[in-house]
Amino acid sequence: MSTITLTREIPVKKEYDLIIAGGGVAGVAAAVSARRHGVKKVLLVEKTVNIGGLATTGLINFFVPMCNGRGKQIIFGMAEELLRESVKYGFDSLPDEWKDGEPKEPTSARYITHYSPWIFSFQLAELLKNEGVELLLDTLVNDVVVEHNIVKGLVLESKSGAEFYPAKYIVDATGDSDIFKRAGAPTVEGKNYFTYVASEVNLDSCKDAYESLDIKRAFVNVHGGPANLYGGKHPENRPYYTGVTKEDVTEYVYENSMVLLERYKNGDRNSRELARIPFMPQFRTTRHIKADYSLKMEDVYVHFDDSIGAINDFDHADKLFEVPYRAMINSEYPNLIAAGRCVSGEGFAWDILRVIPPAIITGQAAGAACAIAVSGDLAIDKVDISKLQNMLEKDNVMIHFDDSLVPENRNSDEKVDIGHI
Known about the structure:
The chain is of the alpha/beta class.
């Protein structure tokens, strides 16, 4: 491949204690957590014009279960704070059993809810501003400046042109581990299926919404690619997507759009409208960091000394995990930390980590860890884990699950159908 060499001078902008790359829910949690724990200069950079990532722009507007499937809440902290915020001004699908907190009696009803993606996006933007986080929208990370594995800052590209923003610490919440990758750190690519969801409004759904007095029933899911979470119905002749190249993104978006277009070439054009489409590819597992540890399915019911939060399997009852801090860092890169989908997991454990509530938990932990690092001028792997855990516990995060919640039959594989994620 031939190359060219570009030499140019770009302006150096304000230095930050912490820059978060990616304005999804993990990035928001990291930024807010850092500010709440005393980091003064925090900047969040988002490539689109909306906050929330897949949870809003990507139309995956669903808080998956935050409980064990028996009526016991597992995920707390900022994940619960944001869940409650998400249904404050828009519709919800929160089960009655959970409307006032954890049920007093055992129940198989899961702690879940849908929400308005656009209202929630505005709420997240408001939260960032209220917490004193500086924000840049419609801004891409163009390059990463690295010296001896220390990231000195990010080159950002926007309507203002290319600009260099120095930073002491960086949270990679890009969803694709773009910062780690461009810094030269090892990463692991995943695979993504031919699956795509949008929303239609039609006369029947409008009638249903009106008669039930429930606006969310006006929106009906419509699909492009037919594959499910596990790859079922993925076309045999279609390669999997990594989602980390422009070609992959272009093909995925175009092919799914064409499937949906075929749907609308027939029928009464005055009776329905394609009301909501995702404004980012709905890839789930593109690329995570190669961390000091990678969470595995065999880690179910395992306690970690460096846990930063307990989480549960959204797809099965009972299965509990703890997220080790080591899954968020590569100790050879002393001022980088991952959050959200960038955190290291293998197999379905990566799926368990990448959904909304665990993504928020890892974001919250990343922000708190950076607060400790900033105050002590520490390498990210030298953060005092006990201090970090104490901070998170005070912020209502469950660090270790209670062993009384571990079922006698640890090999049980009871699935719970919770709909499209």
